[in-house]
Amino acid sequence: MHTDKMNMTEQWTTIAQFITDRTKRNAMRFQDKLPAQTKDGRYEFADNGFWTGGFWTGLNWLSYELTGDDSYVTSARASYPRLLKRMYETPETMDHDTGFLFSLSFVADYKLTGSPEAKRIALDAADRLRERFNEKGRFIQAWNVWKPGDPFSEENRGRIIIDCMYNLPLLFWAAEVSGDSDYRRVAEAHADTCASTIIRSDYTAYHTYVFDPLTGEPKYGRTFQGYSDDSVWSRGQTWAIGGYTYAYRYTGKQEYLTIAVGCAKQYLNRVERDYVPVWDFSVPDREAALRDSSAAAIAAASLLELAKYVEGDDRSAFTEYAKHAVLSLYDAYSTAGDEDNEGLLLHGCSHHPMNSHVDCSLIYGDYYYAEAVARLLGATKSYW
Ligand code: GLY
Q1: 204 C-beta closer than 6 A to ligand 1
Q2: Each residue of 366-375: pLDDT tens digit?
Q3: Which domains can be identified in the chain, with CATH numbers?
Q4: Residue 274 designated active-site
């Protein structure tokens, strides 16, 4: 992008056009389906939404805000039946990612259209998230037991993961619109527990942390998608930045702001010179390591929110990172100009240790990229 010839607003507008055009074209093929990641430039779908379905609906809501074009509302709502079937007919498949699925679909819908039906459904989703709360340990259980008897899977009964921090806005929102402060009690308790366990004293984050599910005693940090238990998985670091930023926005608790800023500084101290991190900051050979464009997009969108609550050098560092990252992603990691590709951002890395969905487009990377651009244009209400 020729930055010398274009002012900032023109640049964000050009990128927004790329995002909304591609989203509109994709919606024609996707119909009611929920895209997750690309293979050879085509999105693959997750029938029940996996943890990622909300990012597609959210991308359509953002496109609606960016353009005012009602066809995006139709596209956002086209896949709702899949989310509803999941929640009401197979509740046992729901986990802590309920926030990702429902904040960016039904909460967004309610915030933008005032639909009472959307509000009712989003509150039901908040109930599903709240009921995962372990009162003894004061945490929200992340995952279900996938394979009974398997040691890692059994640990899930007492596992929290850093990603859950980005699901708490559903509970904070539910407390505000319902007047039931118990949603907020659970969200704050979880954020407090994370603060003393999964967030290390230097403000880097473990990916997961295991508790005794019966006594609630904290035990140890463990990774699943990172390089090692003690490593700094880059996307996890960005979940922490955004998660604590929203916890602060809803509660005003200074401790949450301190954590968000500390995590942001750790991220900014480590990120590569082109603003797009390697998939885990602790890999031995960073030159050779795959990047994770989704982490850069999550960081950009989250730092633009965090910048609102800080001043001086921190505000300018967070805003500058977001602007540079958005441009770097467009210039070197996007599919702009490649009309055969359905993704927006290339080089996302979902699960490196399992070699699963690496070096591809990820729907959450695409969503957060659009969110960052919409924020730079001042064109979106927050769905979180
Ligand atoms: N929430 C799962 C992930 O970040 O891959």
Answers
A1: no
A2: 999 999 999 9
A3: 25-376 (1.50.10.10)
A4: no
